Amino acid sequence: MGRQRLRTMNVFIPSPLRSYTGQHCVQARGASLAEALADLDRQYPGIRFRMIDEQDRMRPHLRFFINGAQTFDLSLRLRATDELAIVQALSGG
Amino acid sequence: MAAALKKIAVNKSSKPAATRRNLGAAVARSPAPRAAPVPAVVLMVATRKGAWIFHGDASRRRWRADGPHFLGHIIHHLVLDPRDGRTLLAAAKTGHLGPTIFRSTDKGRSWKESVQPPAFAKAPDGQAGHSVDHTFWLTPGHPSEPGVWYAGTSPQGLFRSEDGGTQWEPVLSIHEDPQFRQWKGTSQDGTPDGAKLHSILVDPRDPAHLYFGMSGGGVHESIDRGRTWSPLTAGLEVVAGFDAANLAFHDPHCIALCQSNPDRLYQQNHCGIYRIDRPSKEWVRIGRTMPKRVGDIGFPMTVHPRNADTAWVFPMDGSSVWPRTCVGGSAAVYATRNGGKTWKRNAAGLPERDAWWTVKRQAMAADGNDPVGVYFGTSSGELWSSRDEGRQWSCIAQHLPEIYAVEAGRLG
Q1: What total of structural domains would you count in chain A?
Q2: CB within 8 A of B137, min separation 6: which ones?
Q3: CA B232 to chain centroid
């Protein structure tokens, strides 16, 4: 699917990452979760590395939900109607 | 990320109540300020919950706190570039977000994130690669190489930036070397909060001459700007029962190079205090002359900027399960003024009892003034200073978060 044909999807941003986006809901494009995160990083440089390490592993306590269903698969295919929620679990003192 | 500027709980009395009386006497005895202006000292304080910059007045008696910067971030190191006196780099992460580097070119008024923070190379498919948990150590490059910085990470990695900290590249001579991978060990071998590469030292006479330490993994030296490395561990002891020939068992806690005599280095090691005088390749344990009841275990190692015979350590309780607190709960800096032949306890003004804290390896520093100011931050969030080379101490601030690092510098 060409990038020009991708519609934007809503992405919900947790508070620890709002210093990048400035808002709790932003838009991203991508045919997969990996592509959507890459698009987020293009818009908000540095945000991806705070969530995904250099080995493409999700960082601990960072969770991704597509339409309310948790996924650990960066290659998961996405539709333009999907909603991506990034959830930052907080723990510790 | 905007830096907040506000006063915090600076202890204007400069002393906890338990010992305030002693300080008052000390201040009363202090000589009158010199007529010549003394360059203002700033202290860069990195903590578990953010960073502060403390601005001293000319006398170094009064301090103004600028912070917190990055409140809630874990700041392992905050370093001022001595080459321009205005660029600051902060090694940051939060409890759950990945690591990054923030950079300020206006003395901390504003900050910008690195475009490419330190990160290991992506491992080939099917192989488990390392990922940087946090950047632990930052070192500005040689004065002849403006813009060059080095970073040490946990797990052990060495990174270099040539653009002032905006983009970082791995030093592949270490990361891709099978021997280094073996020396670094596994997550089973690291210190409690992760194995670290630290004490990145640049010879002031030669930008190609570098040292670093790994906990664990030993001390290493390069004379070709990091293309090749040689171990420098002869004479260093390891924990009884382990083989000193295996560098994985070496745990240098902190290494310091004497700017006034770059052939001399001091080291606080897991197994004692050492000195080496190059070109010798053998460390000599100089901590044997410490009082037996105190021992020579600790983390920080700070050297005098103009006198290579003078250095300071902060011993800790390294007995039994390693409480890592002041020995017997009595706080004291120990100073040598003869290259380690003898050590003197410097405790005036420090708590004589109930000091159940310690000083981490990056949390002690010296300024360049005359007499030298010595500073340390505690795991209990107190910032202490001495304006007379360690003889008399006073508390600058209390109630900070756990202090990870203290650096002294001068703004340009």
Answers
A1: 1
A2: B76, B77, B91, B150, B151, B152, B153, B196, B197, B198, B199, B200, B362
A3: 20
Q: What residues make up the domain containing A24?
A: 6-88
CB B198 within 8 A of CB B134: no
Name the residue among B321, B333, B330 with its Cα closest to residue B385: B333
Half-sphere exposure of residue B207, counting CA atoms within 13 Å on the CB side?
Answer: 12
* Selected residue of A51, A53, A64, A91 to mutate for chain B interface (largest B Cβ count, 10 A): A53
Partners of A88 on chain B (C-beta within 8 Å) are 96-97
From A16, A54, A55, residue closest to B97, measured CB to CB: A16
Q: What is the pTM of this model?
A: 0.90
Q: Over the stretch B131-188, which tens digit does the pLDDT of each residue have?
A: 999 999 999 999 999 999 999 999 999 999 999 999 999 999 999 899 988 898 877 7
Tokens standing for residue B239: 């924990």
AA letter at B208:
A
Q: Which residues in chain A are contacts of B117 at CB distance < 8 A? A: 46, 49
Note the residue count of chain A: 93
**Two structure tokens written together for B73:** 């971030």
- DSSP category for residue A33: H
Q: What is the token pair recorded at B108?
A: 């901390």
- Cα B391 to Cα A49, B108, B109, B238, B344, distances in angstroms: 46, 32, 34, 32, 10
Annotated domain spans of chain B? 17-30+41-119+131-409
In the block, which residue shows the tokens 């709002």? A18
Tell me how far CA of residue B287 lies from CA of A27, A58, B295, B309, B311, in angstroms: 60, 45, 7, 14, 12
Q: State how far the Cα of B252 lies from the Cα of B233, in Å rounded to an integer.
A: 9
Q: Kindly state whether residue A53 falls inside one of the protein's structural domains.
A: yes
In a domain, A57, yes or no: yes
β-bridge pairing B311-315 and B42-47: unpaired
Distance from the B362 Cα atom to the nearest Cα atom in chain A, whole angstroms: 22
User: What are the structure tokens assigned to A9, written together?
Assistant: 């999807």
Whether the CB of A17 is below 8 Å from some CB of chain B: the reply is yes
Instruction: Tell me the backbone φ, ψ of residue B117, rounded to 5 degrees.
Output: -65, 165
Contact B76, B133 (CB under 8 A): no
pLDDT (tens digit per residue) in B205-218? 999 999 999 999 99
**Residue of A17, A57, A61 lying closest to B131 (CB–CB):** A57
ipTM of the complex: 0.86
Q: Which residue of A has its CA nearest to B122?
A: A55
CATH number belonging to domain B17-30+41-119+131-409 = 2.130.10.10
Q: CA angle, corner B360, sides to B354 and B361, nearest 5?
A: 145
